[in-house]
Amino acid sequence: MRKTTKGIKASTGERIFNVLNCLIMIGLIVVTLYPFLYIIFASLSNSNKLMAHSGLLFGPIDFTLDAYKAVFKNNSIYTGYSNTLTVLVVGVSLSLLLTFFGAYGLSRKNLVIKKQLMVFIIITMFVSGGMIPNYNLVTGLHLDDTLWALILPGVISTFNLIIMRTNFEGIPDSLEESARIDGAGDMTILFRIILPLSLPIIAVIGLYYAVGIWNSWFNAMLYIRDRDLYPLQLLLREILIENEVGAMGNGADMGDALAVSETIKYAVIIVSTLPILVLYPFLQKYFVKGTLTGAVKG
Amino acid sequence: MNEAITADRGMRVAKKKKDRYIWRLVYDIKNHKMVYCMLLPVILYYLIFHYVPMYGAIIAFQNYNPADGILGSQWVGLANFIEFFGSRIFSRVLVNTLRISLTTLIFSFPAPIILALLLNELKNKIFTRTTQTITYLPHFISLVVICGMIKDFTTEDGIITQICALLGMAPQNMLNNPNLFVPIYVVSDIWQGIGWGSIVYLAALTGIDQSLYEAARIDGAGKFRQVWNITLPGIVPTIIVMLILRMGSLLSVGYEKIILLYNPLTYEVADVISSYVYRRGLEDFAWSFSTAVGLFNSVINGILIFGTNMISRKINNTSIW
Question: pTM of the full predicted structure?
Answer without folding.
Answer: 0.86
